[in-house]
From TrEMBL:
InterPro entries: Calcineurin-like_PHP, CNP_phosphodiesterase-III, Metallo-depent_PP-like
SUPFAM superfamilies on file: Metallo-dependent phosphatases
Domain of life according to the entry: Bacteria
Protein name, entry field: Metallophosphoesterase
Organism name: Rhodovarius crocodyli
Homology family: Belongs to the cyclic nucleotide phosphodiesterase class-III family.
Domain Calcineurin-like phosphoesterase: 4-196
Pfam families: Metallophos
This protein's UniProt keywords: Hydrolase, Iron, Metal-binding
GO MF term list: hydrolase activity; metal ion binding
Amino acid sequence: MTVRIAQISDAHLSPTRPYFNENFALAQQSVRDMKPDLLLATGDLSLDGADSDEDLAHGVAAHAEIGVEWLSIPGNHDVGDEAVLGGKQPVNAERIARWNRLAGPSAWVHDIPGWRLIGLDTQSLSLGTQWETIERGIRDAGARRIAMIQHKPMAEQRLDDTAINYWPVLPELRAHLLGLFRGALPALVISGHIHQWRDRQVDGIRQVWGPSTGFVVGDGFQETMGNKLVGWVEHAFHADGTHDARLRAIEGLRLHDIKTMPEIYGAQKKVAEAAQ
Ligand SMILES: [Fe+2]
Ligand SMILES: [Fe+2]
């Protein structure tokens, strides 16, 4: 038996600032046409859900409108981000409560034949509220293979990367998360946030980065680590523990570049500055 899953990421939707809504309408139809068994939204459903009920409610409703069973986890634009990163929207109880009220739990476990999916919020791991759910999910998985569903990727390159920046799970929290596997590792990590497509096996983990349906972050403002494009990802989870992923391009999707749209999130920091 195979479970077919559509992964949509980083739609960045808003009812009042609808820059990426046209792209999302095309993605909605494309996912409907696939008739997946499940839809996974890997964060940044909203343009500014970290400060706006309206944006988050709109983003959630637009994903629900697709009309298939779905699960989601928050992105930094939905709940803010780890305070240590120094951004304008530090994650806190109020922001997490907004997500929980409008979108659902921040961490969850979902079983399909041969696999256990564990969803988590990579922006609030330091608050400690998710460890119990994640730890139990790992501990009771039995023979199932584990796929982590998260907004930020585990690492930009290697699991022992030490850089602290906006893009990956922070090194200390990554070490704690992977330590919960007690010497084993998840088979698969599915993430968003980078707005690039990449699918590779590194350090014993298959790591799939879903692109955004809305925009890329232009050269000079973000390194190219995979492919800068827009689209979504079709996953096939087989009951024997194998898995396939393939990029789905959509005809008519516009390749927006946030570098040229400072009115949305302000001017982007250059790569060298962002790394500081
Ligand atoms: Fe995003
Ligand atoms: Fe993000």
